[in-house]
Design brief:
It comes from Rummeliibacillus stabekisii. Interacts with Spx. It holds the Pfam family Thioredoxin_5. GO terms for molecular function: isomerase activity. With about 270 residues, the chain is α+β, with helices and mostly antiparallel strands. Among the domains are: about 1-60 and about 170-210, Glutaredoxin; about 215-270, Arc Repressor Mutant, subunit A (Orthogonal Bundle). Helix content is about 50%, strand content about 15%. It contains twelve helices and eight strands. Strands 1-5-4-2-3 form a five-stranded mixed β-sheet. Helix 4 runs antiparallel to helix 5, helix 4 (about 90-100) crosses helix 8 and helix 11 (about 230-235) crosses helix 12. The longest helix has 17 residues, at about 100-120. The radius of gyration is 19 Å and the shape is globular.
């Protein structure tokens, strides 16, 4: 692969590692490809999450952020804010959700990616971003306050600084660091198959990977909320047709339900 390069040092913002590998994932929330990327990342987390911690880093243009903040500040009423639309607002919304905790932020991010992929509503509009906050069980009043706060904007600006520091100019990009602070980081620009990232993890660890046993379907849904049949089949290493039959049994038992959109079917806990 030509899009792999080494970084000389870790960024100053990098926290101390509690696992052997630290992974930074740089994504564009408005790219429909980020939804497929999410499936790959979740499979890595389920199989090898004991080896790495992970941080999503959002990427867009800083001048767009400045423009968005000016437009938000110019709103005189809540009604004006609801109608506001701007490409940077989804990133600020994710940062506002993260102020309610890392898990809350991740729920919000994955639901936003789902909305982007389905392309049924404008995810750049404040009304849609507020709807996602309701759907992900956030404290909506707190979310609205945080969305307008300096903290959310600064958190997003910090992501932009990380991208510049690591010289990330393409999304998606993965940057891997190991626990030895003196070792170089490894930056992988672009999208590749699951097996490629699996191989990179193995090479960075210098040992054969031990795959974790996936949890029960119910536990998996509690953690990640929605799945496609293809994604679940890959996690449990069964055929899509077998997976479909098992999910339909659970649907008859009223344990899960199926939501069908124009170009996608998703399973979720009932």
């Amino acid at each position: 692969m030509n899009n792999i390069q080494y970084l000389s040092e870790k960024p100053a913002v990098s926290p101390s590692l509690s696992k052997p590998i630290e992974l930074y994932v740089f994504i564009d929330l408005l790219s429909q490809g980020s939804f497929e990327l999410q499936a790959l990342i979740r499979q890595l987390q389920i199989n090898y999450g004991h080896y790495f911690s992970m941080r999503f880093v959002l990427s867009t243009e800083l001048n767009s952020l400045n423009s968005a903040c000016q437009r938000i500040n110019s709103c005189q009423t809540q009604e004006e804010l609801v109608d506001l639309s701007h490409p940077v607002l989804p990133s600020i919304a994710v940062k506002a959700a993260e102020l309610q905790g890392k898990k809350a932020g991740y729920r919000y991010l994955t639901k936003l990616q789902e909305y982007t992929y389905l392309n049924t509503k404008n995810v750049c509009q404040c009304s849609t971003l507020q709807e996602i906050a309701y759907e992900t069980n956030l404290d909506v009043e707190e979310f609205q306050t945080d969305f307008l706060s300096v903290e959310a904007s600064r958190s997003f600006q910090n992501d932009l600084c990380i991208a510049r520091e690591m010289e990330v100019d393409e999304v998606p990009s993965f940057v891997f660091f190991n626990e030895n602070i003196e070792d170089e980081g490894l930056k992988v620009s672009g999208s590749y198959s699951y097996e490629v990232y699996e191989k990179i993890l193995e090479e960075l660890l210098g040992e054969k990977l031990v795959c974790q046993q996936p949890p029960s379907v119910e536990d998996l849904f509690h953690r990640f909320h929605t799945f496609t049949t293809k994604e679940l089949a890959a996690i449990y290493q069964i055929s899509p047709s077998t997976c479909e039959r098992e999910l339909k049994k659970k649907m008859l038992q009223q344990k899960v339900d199926r939501v069908t959109y124009e170009n996608l079917s998703l399973w979720r806990l009932k």
